[in-house]
Design brief:
The structure holds two protein chains of two kinds. Chain A has five helices and four strands; from the N terminus they run H-H-H-E-E-E-E-H-H. Chain A is an alpha+beta fold. Chain A folds into three domains: 43 residues, no CATH class; 51 residues, no CATH class; 74 residues. In chain A, the strands form two sheets. Chain A has a two-stranded antiparallel ribbon with strand order 1-4. In chain A, strands 2-3 form a two-stranded antiparallel ribbon. Chain B has twelve helices and eight strands. Chain B has an eight-stranded mixed beta sheet, sandwiched between helices. In chain B, helix 5 runs parallel beside helix 6. The longest helix of chain B has 15 residues. The termini of chain B are far apart. Classes of the chains: A alpha+beta, B alpha/beta. At the A-B interface, helix 2 of A face helix 7, helix 9 and helix 12 of B.
Chain lengths: 170, 270
Amino acid sequence: MGLFSDIYNTVAKFFRPQEEQGDASKSVATNRLKLVLMQDRTNLTPKILEQMRGELIDLLSRYVELDKELLELNFEQEGDQVALMLSIPVIRAKDEEEIEAALKAEAEKLEEKIEELEEEIDNSDVISDDNIEENNSEENSTNLTSTPDEMNSSKNNEQEISFEECHTEQ
Amino acid sequence: MTGRVIVITSGKGGVGKTTTSANIGTALAKAGNKVVLIDTDLGLRNLDLLLGLENRIVYTIVDVIEERCKLKQALVKDKKNPNLSLLAAAQTRDKTAVNAEQLKEICDTLKEENDFVLVDCPAGIEQGFQNAVAGASEAIVVTTPEMSAIRDADRIIGLLEAKEEIKSYKLLLNRVRPNLIKSNEMMSVDDVVEILSCPLVGIIPEDTGIITSTNKGEPIVNDENALAGKAYRNVAQRILGEEVPFLDLDEPKGFMAKIKNAFAKLKAKV
């Protein structure tokens, strides 16, 4: 049987037009090359791409329920321009309450993060304090009080930026 | 007279820069233009071999720069065509012996008395590339339908785009194998052009005649029957501003291929 099918395949292949013989290594090469060129051209490493993907999922899943497994992030070239193509299967849209809840959760998360960061900065200040303590302890105390203010202002900045992003997205 | 200075570059080595330089230069000279070829691959010179001029070289580009001879003395005339001459690279020095400004000066001087100055660029994107590009206002990027060559060509195109002096650059796709493209084992011309989004100046089929022509030190454009020679002559005509259709490489040549093609057509009708 094996011999017969071998002969049949060889003969059939001979009479088949070449275009029908399926995509071989060419399409593999083209696809690999396209991806690697996009990375070269945009300086986006696979790690950054993965991060971008993750953040996009986080952002979008505040508003819609997504099938995260099937999300595709690709680059496509149209002439000179490179387009970022995001394909996401949406399971369902969330209602307003859910969206608000998600936004609140997000805001809480951010606050927690900021607190963590503040603590870290405080700690590092304490360490640097130890070094300079002998010289001028009074100045250090003013430094410490100024840091939370700085953090607050940077927090405001962050919120502004995220609002801008929302606008451009829409 | 102000001639055109064209750099022939690729990024990757071994894709046929030097073969392309020799052939386009010869074809342009045959068409009646005064042409100078400059080999800027210092330490790894080969353009002299492809032209069969290796025994005639007395002075090199480094001798000109270090003022051991005049520029005219260093130009070696081609055996067959008095319109064509070569400025050879130094074989015993490395790329640091020349800088971009010096090469630009040489190109500027040569273009005064020639229609074309073709600069054969070394592989890579370092000093040698920067030198070769310095005096040029046009570029031909040589690549083959292979991933590594295309990736490097893309890098080169990016670098050329950033150079103000380079007014135009075109792609020359070398070593194309129509039968591999047909069986989908090789990227097609359209694939490569789409990926690099760069205008084409030529498609050169893989031709075993290139090996024998290199062996003999005679560019394949001199062989009227060779397909690659014809393709290179077409490139030269396009450089001269003529509109020449690209060679149809799909035509089946062998007897078996013809039968196969006939069957395919028959099947398509039924």
